[in-house]
Write a structure and sequence with these properties.
10-stranded mixed sheet, globular, 12 strands, alpha/beta, 12 helices, Isopropylmalate Dehydrogenase
């Protein structure tokens, strides 16, 4: 059976990193007799320029009919301040797919400690997973625009909190069994609801998992002081957006970090970095985050743990060999790095378990 993957290259470096991820995913899949077909569609700023909409109906229909969606990046200065913005398409797509849980793993790979901003002894061994609620909160609340007064409403229901908390607890069962739920319960009503709903679910179904609660400002500080102390971080939409970007830099480059947005019938997989228009079209982008997003697509979208592990291991071995892009002190361009990883993903290579974003150990 051939599985259809929709590619949304998007804007800036999006087309370059998407092509790199497709190259690796396709090579690894073919070597393991996994049949994939790829279909590209307009999205984000590129779609606005061509159709006037960031998420054209043709693109949405294709995504809803696919097995999984792989996205590059959206946005850029060209559309800043415009009434219709590329990011509106991304929010709309997440909502339409029902992708309420965003998985953002961060692991400091062996030998990469020196490339992050922290002392190697602090970042060494860091391996965490941020589970971010993706379709509620401030980003989806009622908003009032204005130059003198503006507002963004933050709304959560118990059901929304419970369903994403369940994803975090299940993920923790396959990792080290610890969840830190992050809120702002000392000042926000939604934070108090969040904390109560998470605690209630824990008591009912997940007492085998350790649960702690933390305030977002304290957690942001601890993330740079002791990143290796975390296992699974569960949090709401805006806090998760901020904390995951903070965590990504600890690994050495924001270009290393993947994500998976799951919960509905079709998952959305994308690197967490932006469109980087300053280097677009120059073959300078680091495609690692996009490639690892393709690995998460294999795991969560295709149900192929073997394929996911092969891609993750190939990335780790390629970086360990010294083959790196400029942001990590290397000399390879985006396409050349992808070729190295694609070669390392062939099945005669030794298998290992990188465990990026895995839901369980089976």
């Amino acid at each position: 059976m051939t599985e259809k993957i929709v590619l949304l290259p998007g804007d800036g470096v999006g087309p370059e990193v998407t092509a790199a991820a497709r190259r690796v995913l396709d090579a690894a899949a073919c070597a393991r007799d996994v049949s994939l077909s790829f279909e590209e569609h307009l999205f984000g700023g590129a779609a606005i320029d061509a159709t006037g909409e960031p998420l054209p109906k043709q693109t949405l229909d294709a995504c809803l009919a696919a097995k999984a969606v792989l996205l590059g990046a959206v946005g850029g200065p060209k559309w800043d301040g415009a009434e219709i913005r590329p990011e509106q398409g991304l929010l709309g797509l997440r909502k339409a797919l029902g992708a309420f849980a965003n998985l953002r793993p961060m692991r400091v790979l062996p030998g990469m400690e020196a490339y992050g901003p922290l002392k190697p002894e602090i970042s060494r061994g860091a391996d965490l997973l941020i589970v971010r609620e993706l379709t509620g909160g401030t980003y989806f609340g009622e908003r009032i625009e204005g130059r003198e007064r503006a507002s963004d409403e933050c709304v959560y229901t118990r059901a929304e909190v419970t369903r994403v908390a369940r994803v975090a607890f299940e993920a923790a069962r396959g990792r080290r069994g610890r969840v830190l739920s992050v809120d702002k319960a000392n000042v926000m009503a939604t934070g108090r609801l969040w904390r109560a709903a998470v605690s209630d679910l824990h008591k009912r179904e997940f007492e085998d998992v350790s649960l702690e609660h933390g305030l977002v400002d304290a957690v942001a500080m601890k993330l740079v002081l002791a990143p290796a102390s975390f296992d699974v971080i569960l949090t709401e939409n805006m806090f998760g957006d901020i904390l995951s970007d903070e965590a990504s830099v600890i690994a050495g480059s924001i270009g290393l970090s993947p994500s998976a947005s799951i919960g509905g019938a079709v998952g959305l997989y994308e690197p967490i970095h932006g469109s980087a228009p300053d280097i677009a079209g120059q073959d300078k982008a680091n495609p690692t985050g996009a490639i690892l997003s393709a690995a998460m697509l294999a795991r969560h979208g295709l149900g192929r743990e073997d394929l996911a592990r092969a891609i993750e291991r190939a990335v780790e071995e390629t970086l360990a060999s010294g083959a790196r892009t400029a942001d990590l002190g290397g000399t390879l361009g985006c396409a050349a790095f992808a070729e190295k990883v694609a070669g390392a993903a062939l099945p005669w290579k030794r298998s290992s378990d990188v465990r990026l974003g895995r839901m369980n150990n089976n």
